[in-house]
């Protein structure tokens, strides 16, 4: 069973193309995290929020990544982090073309 990790937090930027350039190496390193299948980067420049939706192989790998990522964000001065881990209903998700096997 796959697990979704949802993370969001307040951030002053960068956003858009500037974010894509500035966080390219970070994005590449995330691909090396144990159990991580994919990530969708999220941002709302008007609200000053950013985060991501991740798919992990197991609840344990999602929780381990969240712990590490929270410490990294704390190091950047980001302390108000919202996060949730959800199990994925793969049967229903496949009907709606969700990339659960990506």
UniProtKB/TrEMBL annotation:
Pfam families: ydhR (PF08803). InterPro entries: Dimeric_a/b-barrel, YdhR. SUPFAM superfamilies: Dimeric alpha+beta barrel. This is Monooxygenase. PANTHER family: MONOOXYGENASE YDHR-RELATED, PTHR39169.
